[in-house]
Design a protein that fits this description.
alpha+beta; Beta Polymerase, domain 2; 7-stranded mixed β-sheet; two-stranded antiparallel ribbon
Amino acid sequence: MQIYKVGGAVRDRLLGKPVTDIDWVVVGATTEEMLAKGFRPVGADFPVFLHPKSGEEYALARTERKSGRGYGGFTFHASPEVTLEEDLIRRDLTINAIAEDDQQNLTDPYHGQRDLEARVLRHVSPAFAEDPLRVLRVARFAARYAALGFTVAPETLELMRELSESGELEALTAERSWKEISRALMEDQPQVFIQVLRDCDALKVLMPEVDALFGVPQPEAHHPEIDTGVHTLSVLEQSARHKQPLTVRWACLLHDLGKGLTPEEEWPRHIAHEHTGLKLIKAVNERFKAPKDCQELALLVGQYHTHGHRALELKPSTLLELLQSFDVYRRPQRFEEFIAACEMDARGRKGLEQRSYPQADYLRGAATAARSVAVQPLLEKGFKGPELGEAIKRERLKALKIYKETAQA
């Protein structure tokens, strides 16, 4: 029995990055031997075991063969005869196909170290094209390591393109796709993830609504970058620079989908794109079964982001409607995330990345003013039921009128 570290733990150590999760592969062992040593079996598809003390995953060396469509369409073979090289060749990228023994000796049959030095993401073997999930994984690695200068090898990008055109991407489950998408959006350069998907024609399969934004112009006065797709990537980039949570990053990606529906004769204006985009945002949310908080914020940002930009001009009644839509009284954090998404949208424009955004503090102040209305005095006056609701609304509107006059005095 021989045990090796494999995959990300080896890769990140060689890159000088912190190692978090460690994967182990066991060569020359049987399931019975692992159980005899106290390892606990997990995973129904192939032999993976948890170490009795550390809880880390140990997998028996295995080979795989394509047997159906999609990520799960494989049959696996694990036995003591499977070599380390045979196990490594089934991995996605050369930089993930390096093994290390307990003396830090490396086994690198597919030249992963060379590609680490050259900053190249390259597939290990033609079998790469058998697994559609690898399109998303490679795009995610490109986003993670873009700051180190990594790019996707042309021949790997071509295989990704073949996968995109094969229909295999449609076989991915919503859960698997969302897992990769959500992880990619939380990388340091999530815009690279979207760009790589577009480069290999996967974006038009997975998110045609986002792909449709490229080539659609916007008014240069507000958008020096002009292209709506480029703007979307810039907004996503800003959301990562400002360490925004996943909810905000997802909303940033989808906020302008309505502009993809604008008839060409109306370009570069996009009247009512906030409303036309809602059905597209809903469709993308449902396609990937995004978590509820991501879905809700994306829809609200899509509908109201231009309200955020015009906050200083809004009438008190419109401002009150905005606050009510977000339920700022019970869910203040969601309104904070809306403000953040609006600010990222304002900064995601060529040459305007450092612009100030006074609308943020103005909106926060408005929310505070509306929340400051006390309910108890109205109850003491005898208001109840629908009348109480109307009385609270009147008092909040009054508070917002005073706030607006004071703030703009």
